[in-house]
Structures are given as structure tokens and as C-alpha cells.
Design a protein that fits this description.
The protein is mostly helical. It is about 75% helix and about 0% strand. About 5% of the residues have low confidence.
Length: about 210
């Protein structure tokens, strides 16, 4: 899950530093680029925040992890098309619609991903594995992708970056397919108890 999220975050992080410049170049009139970028970001967060909690409660009420798996998979797949459609926009409202759609996709994927990760995290190193997700899949992925995306935009242009991000996000989503049996319980992991990491290793060494 951490590796999959690394590539998905890399895809979306690749155009983060150039997004406002892209808006100014493609659809802004006069000095409206900062305003359009601000509204676009607001649309994403408003839509995501408005529907994520109801979706999360619905997913919690469903027995098993299959629904969460498909929520992540479909949310990631659908969101992967958004960067491609950025290349086709010609008016601010096009961007707002795409941002709203992206917020809806993430409202499905994020709570389902959190639920699956929490369900399957190693109970004796919870802090480490959540930190691994934060550092590797978010921090390092965004840092590397942002640097590469800025360079690629200068060399190849905005459209190449967005299309590349779209392809990477969609392909990365299919990595989730290989986790289906592990995440849905068809391949059941051994029962885990809550042990500190050192104690768990000590117990394992005695077996």
C-alpha cells in the first residue's frame, strides 16, 4: 500500500509547482491567475470535505474490506484521468468542474485507504508504519516529483507533464489489484496482538 501510494502521490505531485503557472498561461485573463488557482483549490477541498465523512460512515457500516478496496481502486483510477483533462481546458469553469470531480474521487479513495491501512498495519509498529507512509509516500514522493515536474515542464511543456502524470496515476492504481487477496481477507494474515516492537521481535526469536 505504501509503494502504491508513493507512485500515486508522485503523479499528482509532479505538477504541483507549475499548476498556477499553467493556469496563468492557459486560461487566466489579465491578473486573474492567483484568483482562479485559489478558487480551484477551494472547490476541490469543499467537495471532498462535504462528502468524505458520509462516505466514510457508509464504508464503516459495510462488513469486510471489499467495499473499501473498490473505493480506493475506483477513486484512484478516476482521479488519474483528471491531469489528462487539464490539457483540454479553455475556461476557468472547466477547471472548477475537474477540481470538483477530483475532490469526489478522493472522498472515496482517502477514507477507504485509511481504513484498509489501519486494518492491516502491523500492530507492534503502528507509529513506524504510519510514519513510513508519511515520509516515503507523501514527503519523498512529492519532493522528487515536484523537482522533476518543474524540470519536465520547462523542457517538454505543460501538456507532457499532465499526460505523464495521468498515465502514472492510472498505472499505479493497478498495483492495488495485486493486493486484493491480502486486503479483502481471502488471504488471511496471522492473528496479531498489540506488542511493542522490541518485545515482538524477542518473542519471534524464541519460536
Amino acid at each position: 500500500m505504501v509503494i502504491t501510494d508513493f507512485f500515486v502521490n508522485s503523479a499528482f505531485g509532479s505538477f504541483a509547482p507549475i499548476f498556477a503557472i499553467f493556469i496563468a498561461d492557459r486560461i487566466a485573463v489579465g491578473n486573474s491567475a492567483p484568483e482562479i488557482a485559489g478558487f480551484a483549490t477551494s472547490v476541490y477541498w469543499i467537495v471532498k470535505s462535504a462528502v468524505q465523512l458520509p462516505i466514510a460512515r457508509f464504508l464503516d457500516r459495510i462488513d469486510g474490506d471489499r467495499a473499501k478496496f473498490w473505493a480506493v481502486f475506483i477513486g484512484y483510477i478516476c482521479s488519474g484521468f483528471v491531469p489528462f483533462f487539464y490539457t483540454l481546458i479553455s475556461a476557468p469553469w472547466h477547471l472548477y468542474v475537474l477540481q470538483g470531480f477530483l475532490g469526489l474521487c478522493m472522498a472515496f479513495a482517502v477514507p477507504a485507504w485509511y481504513g484498509l491501512f489501519t486494518r492491516h498495519v502491523d500492530k507492534w509498529r503502528i507509529s513506524f508504519e504510519w510514519s513510513l507512509e508519511s515520509v516515503f509516500s507523501v514527503g519523498i514522493a512529492t519532493a522528487l516529483a515536484s523537482a522533476f515536474g518543474g524540470y519536465a515542464a520547462r523542457v517538454f511543456g505543460f501538456d507532457a507533464v499532465f499526460i505523464g502524470a495521468s498515465v502514472l496515476a492510472i498505472l499505479s492504481s493497478f498495483l492495488f489489484v495485486f493486493l486484493y487477496k491480502d486486503l479483502t481477507g481471502e488471504k488471511k494474515p496471522p492473528l496479531q496482538r498489540v506488542f511493542p516492537e522490541r518485545r515482538h521481535r524477542r518473542l519471534q526469536s524464541h519460536k
